[in-house]
Amino acid sequence: MTTLDRNQNKLDLSQILEVLSDGSLPIRFTAYDGSETGPDDAPYGLHLNSERGTTYLATAPGDLGMARAYISGDLEASGVHPGDPYEILRVMSEDIHLRRPPARALAAITRSLGWELLRPIAPPPQEHLPRWRRVAEGLRHSRTRDAEVIHHHYDVSNTFYEYVLGPSMTYTCACYPNQDATLEEAQDDKYRLVFEKLGLGKGDRLLDIGCGWGGMVRYAAKRGVKTIGVTLSREQAEWGQKKIAEDGLTDLAEIRFSDYRDVTETGFDAISSIGLTEHIGVHNYPSYFGFMKAKLRDGGLLLNHCITRPTNNSRARAGGFIDRYIFPDGELTGSGRIITEIQNLGLEVRHEENLREHYALTLRDWNRNLVANWDAAVAEVGLGTAKLWGLYMAGSRLGFERNVVQLHQVLAVKLDAKGNANVPLRPWWNG
């Protein structure tokens, strides 16, 4: 006999969860109405502590509603630190299989909750506007709208990012030379890999598009490369310029608060784009890679490093949680689509590789940093935002581990008029 058969009149919250999950729960669930379900000795648990949380869950089923309830404090997790809820997310994703109930069960759930709890309410303040309401910021991937969504994500607080990212201030996938490497060693190795793939040397000129806080800019400048970095985040640009001055690199390095399309210089020996393509919009790839081609000298190399999907025919737009809380207007596609667009412009792809597992390790270490600096992080940005970041990074780690998303580096060269690449016959970098 099912929960629904046992109680035809009204279901409590734990019974509703049993109906939605077929009753197979690996975690302990308790709720403000006094109901509970799941093993008493489960290592992890969830407590729903308010009607507002029920409304969030009911009006936005899936990851968006869960995020709203969790960030607002209406849904609390036990057995994990709020800066790293990876383990409970892992167990829930592996062993809880929510389903859409049949019409009879859905009607019973609706009747049990009541229309008052099913009326949508304002989301937590950390949430960005839905896509249809962003038109006031301009068309999707217009300059003004791109600037606004970059501000939403990257101008949280430089101090907060220092707590999460560590001394490198690098918010992109690291490259771990071995399983025991530290985050800082892995980020340095990523910059080394990009530098060597681009064949850079003293006296060369590098353009770094979407440079963040300038990690690649400073790495190249320390090795004698004249480097320009551009970012749409004012806080990143100010932090990066200050660091350049502290390192005595002002003669070689510059970070501009600017749209990359406003760079007027040409004839670069190399261009790096590390973690920007996700914000460009798939339909803008031709102009994006075309811009890079126009800025390179003949024989110049470009390296594109970005998150991708494992296939090339899936939906490009991000899901509800990522779009509303993390990367508004973000779009992902497969590495094949990226390579195709680069090739269609006449650039020659020389190498590509997937660093998917490296990003899972990177996110693991960012979560560890957040946990280690939790009190300071909460004081800096507030509990809701700190919990948001813990949730986002832990969930993303699962995505990379399970091949929901990947991280690809694609290396291409601008051929000369005779079709010469003028690069060594075999890979010239230390992998």
Protein model, in words:
This protein is 42% helix and 15% strand. The strands form two sheets. A seven-stranded mixed β-sheet has the order 7-6-5-8-9-11-10, sandwiched between helices. A four-stranded mixed β-sheet has the order 2-1-3-4. The N and C termini lie far apart (59 Å). Strand 5 (205-209), helix 10 (215-221) and strand 6 form a beta-alpha-beta unit. The longest helix is centred in the C-terminal third of the chain and has 19 residues, at 383-401. Helix 3 packs antiparallel against helix 4 (63-71), helix 4 (63-71) packs across helix 13 (320-326) and helix 16 (374-381) packs across helix 17. It is α/β, with parallel strands linked by helices and 431 residues long. 43% of the residues are buried. It folds into two domains: 3-118, Nonspecific Lipid-transfer Protein, Chain A (2-Layer Sandwich), CATH 3.30.1050; 144-413, Vaccinia Virus protein VP39 (Rossmann fold, 3-Layer(aba) Sandwich), CATH 3.40.50. Pfam families: CMAS. Keywords: Lipid metabolism, Methyltransferase, S-adenosyl-L-methionine, Transferase. One of its GO terms (molecular function) is methyltransferase activity.
Overall mean confidence score, pLDDT: 92
The CATH superfamily of the largest domain is Vaccinia Virus protein VP39
Contiguous runs where pLDDT drops below 50 for at least 5 residues: 1-7
Backbone CA Rg: 24 Å
- Gross morphology: elongated
Q: For the largest beta sheet, what order do the strands appear in spatially?
A: 7-6-5-8-9-11-10
Query: How many domains?
Result: 2
Termini gap: 59 Å
Which structural class fits the helix and strand makeup?
A: alpha/beta
Q: Which CATH C-level class of the largest domain is it?
A: Alpha Beta
- The number of helical elements comes to 17
Number of strands: 11
What string, H for helix and E for strand, traces the elements in order?
Answer: HHEEEHHEHHHHHEHEHEEHEHHEHHHE
Percentage of helical residues?
40-55%
Please name the CATH architecture of the largest domain.
3-Layer(aba) Sandwich
Beta-strand portion reads 15-25%
In CATH, the topology of the largest domain is named: Rossmann fold
Please summarize the sheet with the most strands: 7 strands, mixed
Keywords: Lipid metabolism, Methyltransferase, S-adenosyl-L-methionine, Transferase
Organism: Rhodococcus rhodnii LMG 5362
Family: Belongs to the CFA/CMAS family.
Pfam family, one: CMAS
